[in-house]
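lol ok so funny story. i was supposed to be doing the assay writeup but got distracted and ended up predicting the structure for this chain instead. priorities right. anyway since i did it might as well share w the group, maybe its usefull for someone
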Amino acid sequence: MSQIRQEKMARVIKEAISDIINNHLGDPRIEGFISVTEVKIEPDLKNANVFLSIMGKTPEKQKLAFTAIQHASGRIGALLGDYVKSRFCPHLSFHIDDRLKKTAETLRLIDEISKEFPEKEEK
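and the output, tada:
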């Protein structure tokens, strides 16, 4: 398969799964801000790794939301068929992406440290 087709399919899957999770799943365990950060699809387009960033109130609620999404993977795949114009729909594997959380924590620490140093007045 061509690299361009693979990238297009990954983009469509990313947007579709984001819409499906946020608008079409009625599971009460899925709460907080859930973002599809990346989709890596194999060259044969049969398998896709979906990376999710879940911002919830507590780590337990984040894990619960991720578990609910994993349990709904069959439903997500079925709904994905409406978005993907292809002979088959790829098998989805969900993974947690902690990059956004780590970035936010790093920025918070930088901000905290910068408050400890007084700003120098310009002359």
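The first helix runs from residue 3 to 23. Residues 27 and 78 are 16 Å apart (CA to CA).
back to the writeup now i swear
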